[in-house]
Amino acid sequence: MRKERKEAAKRLYEMAEGQQGFFTTKQAKAAGFAENTHPYHVQAGNWIREHRGIYRLASFPQGERPDLMLWSLWSRNREEVAQGVYSHQTALSLHELSDVMPAKLHMTVPRSFRRNSKIPRVLVLHFADLPQSDIGTAHGVRVTKPMRTILDLLAGGEVPSATLRQAVREGLRRGLIRRGEIAETRKRLADSKQLRNLFQKVAA
Fold this sequence. Notes:
The chain has 204 residues and is an alpha+beta fold. It has nine helices and eight strands. The strands form three sheets. A three-stranded antiparallel beta sheet has the order 1-3-2, sandwiched between helices. Helix 5 (88-94) runs antiparallel to helix 6 (146-156) and helix 7 packs across helix 9 (193-203).
């Protein structure tokens, strides 16, 4: 029995290791921990319950942004695949393209995304079916790439144009945005006056 528990703990650690120490109820069960034992591990201090159905190993070193992994796991579907992609002001901050520090976490989820429970107050959800080409990674979670982030913010109008121009310049300087990307975007969205003004002033 002791050997089985040790093996289950090892499997759980291996799962959680790639998720900054976080894991879900389903993952714990898959590792070999029966669901009726989960409260014991919380009470014993082995696990920390972070949200409904999401735990963190108490012994695992806490990362710089554990909140990102927590809400990424919250967005998972029935197959345990995270659906959310951090976007808008949050993505701008994660790419360090601006000093904007949003009070909430902005996340884009598929149009088909549904939750029976209330959306946590810390999250602002945007609904769109993102192509894989618009998705990158930061802090171990999925995030919209810089150009997609700029376009989302431009369309939303919540961030001043001056901030977006500075973000584009910074992205170009650091190689996060390519001039070829700008040319392609301008061609694809040639009718957008907002976009035309933004990139004209960046080039100026």
